[in-house]
Structures are given as C-alpha cells and as structure tokens.
C-alpha cells in the first residue's frame, strides 16, 4: 500500500483556499496539496501520495545514510576486483 | 529521478545482499507489512538475491485484500444506483464482491470512475451537482489524511452531493493479532515506511517492547528493503529487539503532525473486520458522527447489506504469513488473476498476485 | 525461492512443501464465488488475456478458417499470384484529440502499420465512421482533415467509406474503422510463429509515449506533460529494415497491452521463451515519471509508432543500424533474446541480476495507490 513518490516543488500557489504545489516527477508535473507540509519551500523534494505531500525529504539525512551505502557498494566492488567471491551472479 | 534511482542501485543492492548472507546464520523469518514493499521484493527478485539467509513472508498490507466483502457489496450496490457516481482508486475495480465486481457494474451501465486523488473526486462533485458522488475511500493510515482533507474541503465548499464510503484499516492492531497467535513464525518486521511517515514510530516501538521482536521502519525501493533486512538480521544475530528507522529521508519519530490532526478531527477508531481474517479490535477508522452528512453508509442507509464471509480459507493463512501463496492448492490453477478466488490474487499488491505475476516460472504448475 | 510443488488437483496433500500441509484439500480452497462471465467487459478490449479469451471462445469457433486462425495482425492472401495483405482496425480512443495526434491520424497510421508488420506496402484504405448524434460538425471536420493529412503524407488514398449515426449516448462522439490493403514484398514472410531461439528482440524506440499522452488528459488522472503520442506510419521504416536484411522473422507493433502483450503473443505462437534486459529497454524520463506516479509499468502501456522486430542473431546489428538510420527508429535498441528455455514465458533480467516474469495482464492496467 501507499505508493508515494518523491517530487520537486517547482512552484507554490493557493488554489481554492488550499496551499498547493506544482510538483515535478521526472519531467511530468502535477499539483499536490501542501497542507501537511507547511515548512515545504520551492526547491524542496516532497513525498506525494494520492495528490498530497506527506513529508519533506530530509536531504541531510538522505545524504548521510546514502554515503554509508555508497561506501559499502564501493568496498564490495574493490573486494570483487581483488579476486574475492563476487557479490552476486 | 532523484531519491528514487539511487535506491535502485544494483551495486549497492548486491553488496547489501552479500552482507546479509554473510551475517545471517539461520533463515530468520521476516515479514514486510506493506503491499508496496511486497511488490518491490517480487519485482526485483530480492528473495533470489538473499537465498536461504532469510525467509520472507508477506503480511496483510494490502487494504484492497482486507476490505470486507460487505463493503465491496455496498460499493457495488451504490454503483448500481442510477443517481450515484462511484469514484474509486484503480485498485478496487477488480476485487470480487459476493456476485460481481465494480468492473462488471460498469459494464452493466453503472457510473464508475477512476481517479488518482480524492481531490479529483471533490472536483467531480462540484462539476456534477445533480449526481450523488460517492468516493470509495480505502487505505491504511497513509491515505487517511488525504481522505480527511477531502471531507473538510467538502464541508468548506458546502457540497451536498459528496460522501465517502470508508474502508480504512490500521496496521499495528493487525501486527498485534499476528504476534499473539500461537502459529506465528515471524521473528522480525519491516514496518511500512509511508504509514510511519504519517503516524510516526511510537506504535511500533510499543510492539517491540510488548513482544520483544525487532522492527525496522523501511522504505520501498530495493536498497531500502535490503538495508532494512540487513538491520533486522544484525539485531536478530545479536539477540536485540529494538525499533530502528531505515527510512530516515521520509520518516520522523513523531510522524506528520498536521496530517495526524486532520485524521483525528474527522475519523475515530473502532473494531473492524478484515476480509479473510475476521474482526480485529480498534483496527478500523470510521467517520465521526459529526461528519455523518459525508458518510455514505449513513447517507444511503447501507446497514442491511451484509455478506456471508466465506468459510475458513487460505487467504487468512497467507495474509498472516502462516502460509505462502504457493501452499494453496488452487494457486495458479483454479485461482489466477483473471479468475481470482480470493482478494490476495486480485490486487496487484496481494501476495498471491505478486507470486503469480513474477515468480511462477520457479514453481512447476 | 518458492518451493517447487505440484499443484495438480490429484496430488496428495502431504506432498505440499511445508511439513504441516493441508489435511483436507477442500478446507484450503477459497470459497469466494467466481464472478459471472456473461457480459463484455472493458478488459476484453485491452489486448491482454481477456481479449485472447474472447478470440478463442467466441470468434474463432464461429468464424475460424486457415487464414484467420493464424491470428496475425494482417491476413495475407494470394490473388492471381499476387500476394495482398488485408487488415482492419477500429479506433475508439478518448479523448478524440490529444498531444501529438487524434483519432483520425491514429486510424490511418494504425492500419498502415498492421499492413507494414506483414511486410506489405500500403496501397489503399477505407474509412467507416460511427458518429454520435449531436457531435459538433467542426469536430468531424478536424478529424477528417487529419486523416487526409496522414494518408497524403504516407502516400496512400482513402478510396471508400461509410457513415452511420447513432443516438446520443451510444458512441462517445465518434468511432472510426479503417480497413487497409497492401502488397506484400516478394520473398518476405513474417509471422509471430517464426521466432527462433537465439533471435534478437529489437524495439524501434521509446516505449509508452502514446498511452501516457492519452492518460495525461483522462479525467481524474490529468497531469502536465510534454510527452506526445508517438502515432506514426511505419511502412517506410519497415521498408528500410527489409532492404537491409532478409533475416527478419517477425514484426509487430505493440499497441494495446504494450510490449508485454506483443512479446507474450509471439512467444506463445512460436512456442519459445524470451529473456529481456530491463536496463536495455528505452523509456523516456517523463513516461517513467508518469508511470511511477500512477503505479504503472511502461511495458504494458500502449504505443502507436513503434515496432518490435524478431531478427536472427547474425542479422541483429545490421537490423539495428537500419532502424537507427531512419528518423522513426533513431532510438532503436536490442532489448533481449529469444530462448528455448521456459517457453512460452517472457522473463526479465532485473537491474539487480535477478529474474521475474513479464506476464500478460488480464485486462487493462489500472493506476493504483498501493
């Protein structure tokens, strides 16, 4: 359940009394309600579920944790290159 | 696409899988709750990457699958009314009720429409003032805030022709039922990351303490799920039982306060029947009496539409992780996506459909 | 990995993979009743399994003959030694006008393409209209002008036609049927039953453009996009391909049901398996974005200006070059191979190196929230 995908807030406007964002998902744009993320600004990424933003992507946390994953991937590559058993066929 | 593609990185995924296989000394039984997570596991063949290091079972994380038969029948009844426009997410259209599904009703002439967002349903109600627009509001906690906002928006606009047929279920009570069952095999859980984005982690921490079982809040991409599985395996190998958050880019411990406030304003919890499982206490959301004007059950007096729940059937066993879809004698033969016998085969998030669609070449049929 | 079990109904319950298997077969069957199948559903027109069922259960038993039974996109018949291809197609798209095209251009291109997939040069089209009472005259004029333009650009003429009007509420504005006749090139024999293990599977460009362009304008699902329908006449692309090599075994245009339906049909017809490489399949960023948002798989989204070519492995590079040298094939790519294993399943190698089935859907693919 809960198909929510990250999109970039391109523009914020008010529509029918609701704070609404124009959200870009890889080249397409759709409106989403931003009432649950009052702190969202243009340029932020938000997770959008059925036309409602439910969180602002924490880019600091994302970068921190991803760096760890990246190093794991790099290490595995190095081990493989050095003749260790391959990670997966 | 940013924050999506990086979490599908093959090299990182394989490295995580190798780490899991290295650290795991027995096939720990792990369950992911959410249908979206099941979908990813199947689509990317994660079980293949992990081999025997873990035994993945799939939980009741498919609101489509667990919507009780009588709610489907009520939706069908409404859709058959000439004055009603029934608006639904795509997921629900093929789920069998007692004698039909919404696709059939559409074929018979019923006004059934698919939307992406409840906002579209509100817009339909505004542009069709002579129709009674009923929105089939299904989902877990993730979707409840959007539905709450739809009700509040309808109230603000003074819409007289808009109502919700609500079928919302809450995840923690289902996990509690599962863990309390003597047949439970699950040793660790991946909690649903978008549910937790809304409601936060406290309920899951309570479960950790009550049952001494590790729970990791996980995202939806292959790297997210493998990382969450890795965190669970390490906990299990070290004999720990804690709540951890893998999905830090979206989930905060407190969850989303404004979303929770909207839900609390409009909905209240009560006991709920889960299709195939039975009644689970305090596991459903219902519209508060103050919003009766937007409650299709009350507006249309649907109380006398009840359905006979089928006799004990393997749906329940699959939904609770006691059995796999492939254990069902009808799997892939008498029960297929075109001729489903039960809900887990209909919804693309149902465990049976996922197995059938992605994995049956590994099973001799 | 799921245990290998035999789900034959006569097998003993104790043979199920788990030790604590069911003691009584009946107790473990779902008793939810099967829905009645006595009416046509939208899914019967989706190009997936329901459509295939309709052919097998209704049309073939009543109408079957050696030509029809081959179930190709076109019928090839011989008249005084000359091979002609004949095909017919009806167009019911809604909305009538969309980014990159309209029902008129679709109707012309679609039928030309069905002829081209049989190796035929298109010669003439007929056009039959079913119009809803109350349809604005301006709308009809726009559609007809578009048809003329598409036909002229393709170098063919619409030589006969028909018009019927139905009562308001019966026809969604406008339906068009086009029937086409073409001449089959000498020495060319293309068929869905000719795929061989080892053959390369090639697509002529980006997948999913048409379906997404249509969905972007569908009420309830609207979104902003720059994606245009890819509707185009492919006969000159096919001609370039056939000029380059004689080792083309099959051509198909993956319309309703998407690439997945087409490949599954070919695999079943040829009794072969297929293996695809997910990272090789070309999909535009915007199409991907739309599919991610709606929970759709691009493999099931309709195309109207693309072809799939099944080509012998020795001719694959030549075929690819021929496609890429043509404006309609510049993004062509080899996406997989025909195999002898796991016939008739189409299997996808994921970016992680694992595998999954690419199945035919029962009916239309639906957007989902789960």
Summarize the structure.
The complex is a heterotrimer of chains A (about 90), B (about 375) and C (about 375). Chain B has helices at about 10-25, 35-45, 45-50, 65, 70-80, 100-110, 120-125, 145-155, 170-180, 195-200, 200-210, 220-235, 255-265, 295-300, 315-320, 345, 350-360, and strands spanning about 30, 55-60, 85-90, 110-115, 130-140, 160-170, 190, 215-220, 245, 265-275, 280-285.
Describe the structure.
The complex is a heterotrimer of chains A (89), B (365) and C (370). With 89 residues, chain A is of the alpha+beta class. Chain A has two domains: 57 residues, SH3 type barrels; 32 residues. In chain A, 26% of the residues lie in helices and 40% in strands. Chain A is built from one helix and five strands. In chain A, a hairpin with a 2-residue loop joins strand 1 and strand 2. The two termini of chain A are 31 Å apart. Chain B has 365 residues and is an alpha/beta fold. Chain B folds into three domains: 133 residues, HypD, alpha/beta domain 1 (Rossmann fold, 3-Layer(aba) Sandwich), CATH 3.40.50.11750; 122 residues, Rossmann fold; 36 residues, no CATH class. In chain B, helix 1 packs parallel to helix 12 and helix 7 runs parallel beside helix 8. The longest helix of chain B has 16 residues. Chain B starts with 9 loop residues before the first helix and ends in a 6-residue tail after the last helix. The mean pLDDT of chain B is 89. Chain C has two domains: 112 residues, PurM-like, N-terminal domain (60s Ribosomal Protein L30, Chain: A); 158 residues, PurM-like C-terminal domain (Phosphoribosyl-aminoimidazole Synthetase, Chain A, domain 2, Alpha-Beta Complex). In chain C, the strands form three sheets. A seven-stranded mixed sheet of chain C has the order 9-11-8-12-10-13-14. Chain C has a five-stranded mixed sheet with strand order 1-2-7-5-6, covered by helices on one side. Chain C is built from nine helices and 14 strands. With 370 residues, chain C is of the alpha+beta class. In chain C, helix 4 links the parallel strand 5 and strand 6. The N terminus of chain C is likely disordered. Helix content of chain C is 27%, strand content 23%. Classes of the chains: A alpha+beta (89), B alpha/beta (365), C alpha+beta (370). Chains in contact: A-B, A-C, B-C.
């Amino acid at each position: 359940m809960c198909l929510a995908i990250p999109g970039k807030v391109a523009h914020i406007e008010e529509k029918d009394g609701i704070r609404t964002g124009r959200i870009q998902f890889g080249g397409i744009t759709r409106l989403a309600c931003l009432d649950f993320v009052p702190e969202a600004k243009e340029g932020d990424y938000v997770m959008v579920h059925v036309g409602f933003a439910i969180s602002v992507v924490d880019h600091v946390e994302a970068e921190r944790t991803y760096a760890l994953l990246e190093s794991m991937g790099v290490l595995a590559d190095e081990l493989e290159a050095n003749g260790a058993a391959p990670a997966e066929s | 696409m940013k924050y999506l593609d990086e979490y599908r990185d093959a090299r990182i995924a394989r490295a995580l899988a190798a780490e899991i296989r290295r650290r795991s000394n027995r096939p720990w039984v792990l369950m992911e709750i959410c249908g979206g997570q099941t979908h990813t596991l199947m689509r990317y063949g994660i079980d293949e990457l992990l081999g025997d290091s873990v035994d993945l079972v799939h939980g009741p994380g498919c609101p489509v699958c667990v919507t009780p038969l009588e709610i489907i029948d009520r939706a069908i009844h409404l859709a058959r009314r000439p004055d009603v426009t029934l608006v639904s997410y795509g997921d629900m259209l093929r789920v069998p009720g007692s004698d039909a599904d919404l696709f059939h009703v559409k074929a018979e002439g019923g006004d059934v429409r698919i939307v992406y967002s409840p906002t579209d349903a509100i817009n339909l109600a505004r542009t069709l003032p002579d129709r009674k627009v009923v929105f089939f509001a299904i989902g877990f906690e993730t979707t409840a805030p959007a539905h709450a906002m739809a009700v509040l928006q309808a109230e603000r606009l003074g819409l007289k022709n808009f109502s919700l047929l609500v079928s919302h279920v809450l995840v923690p009570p289902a996990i509690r039922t599962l863990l309390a069952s003597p047949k439970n095999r699950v040793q660790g859980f991946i909690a649903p990351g978008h549910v937790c984005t809304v409601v936060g982690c406290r309920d899951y921490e309570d479960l950790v303490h009550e049952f001494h079982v590790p729970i990791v809040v996980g995202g939806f991409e292959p790297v997210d799920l493998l990382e969450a599985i890795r965190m669970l395996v390490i906990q299990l190998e070290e004999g720990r039982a804690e709540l951890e958050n893998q999905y830090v880019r979206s989930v905060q411990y407190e969850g989303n306060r404004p979303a929770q406030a909207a839900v609390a304003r409009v909905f209240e919890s009560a006991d709920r029947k889960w299709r195939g499982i039975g009644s689970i206490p305090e596991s459903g959301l219902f519209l508060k009496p103050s919003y009766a004007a937007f409650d299709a059950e009350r507006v249309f007096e649907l109380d006398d539409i009840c359905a006979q729940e089928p006799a004990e059937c393997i749906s329940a066993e699959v939904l609770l992780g006691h059995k796999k879809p492939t254990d069902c004698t009808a799997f892939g033969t008498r029960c297929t996506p075109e001729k489903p016998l039960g809900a887990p085969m209909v919804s693309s998030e149902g465990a049976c459909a996922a197995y059938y669609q992605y994995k049956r070449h590994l099973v001799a049929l | 990995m799921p245990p290998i079990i035999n789900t034959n109904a006569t097998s003993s319950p104790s043979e199920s993979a788990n030790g604590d298997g069911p003691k009584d077969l009946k107790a473990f069957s779902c008793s939810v009743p099967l829905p009645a199948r006595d009416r046509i559903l939208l899914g019967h027109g989706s190009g997936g399994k329901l459509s295939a069922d309709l052919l097998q259960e209704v049309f073939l038993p009543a109408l079957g003959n050696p030509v029809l039974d081959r179930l190709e996109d076109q019928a090839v018949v011989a008249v005084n030694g000359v091979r002609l291809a004949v095909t017919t197609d009806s167009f019911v798209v809604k909305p009538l006008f969309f980014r990159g095209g309209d029902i008129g251009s679709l109707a012309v291109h679609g039928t030309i393409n069905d002829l081209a997939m049989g190796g035929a040069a298109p010669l003439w089209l007929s056009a039959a209209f079913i119009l809803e009472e109350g349809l604005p005259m301006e709308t009809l004029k726009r559609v007809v002008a578009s048809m003329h333009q598409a036909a002229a650009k393709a170098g063919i003429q619409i030589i006969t036609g028909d018009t019927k009007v139905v009562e308001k509420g019966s026809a969604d504005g406008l339906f068009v049927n086009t029937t086409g006749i073409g001449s089959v090139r000498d020495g060319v024999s293309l068929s869905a039953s000719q795929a061989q293990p080892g053959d390369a599977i090639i697509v002529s460009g980006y997948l999913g453009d048409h379906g997404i362009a249509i969905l972007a304008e569908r009420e309830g699902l609207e979104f902003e996009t720059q994606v245009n329908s890819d509707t185009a006449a492919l006969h000159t692309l096919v001609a370039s391909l056939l000029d380059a090599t004689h080792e083309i075994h099959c051509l198909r245009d993956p319309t309703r049901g998407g690439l997945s339906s087409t490949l599954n049909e070919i695999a079943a017809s040829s009794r072969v398996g297929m293996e695809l490489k997910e990272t090789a399949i070309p999909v535009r960023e915007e199409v991907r974005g739309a599919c991610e948002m709606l929970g759709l798989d691009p493999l099931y989204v309709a195309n109207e200006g693309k072809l799939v070519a099944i080509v012998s492995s020795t001719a694959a590079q030549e075929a690819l070059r021929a496609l890429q040298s043509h404006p309609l094939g510049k993004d062509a790519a080899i996406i997989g191979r025909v195999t002898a294993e796991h016939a008739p399943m189409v299997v996808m190698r994921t970016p992680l190196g694992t595998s999954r089935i690419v199945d035919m859907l029962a009916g239309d693919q639906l957007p989902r929230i789960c």
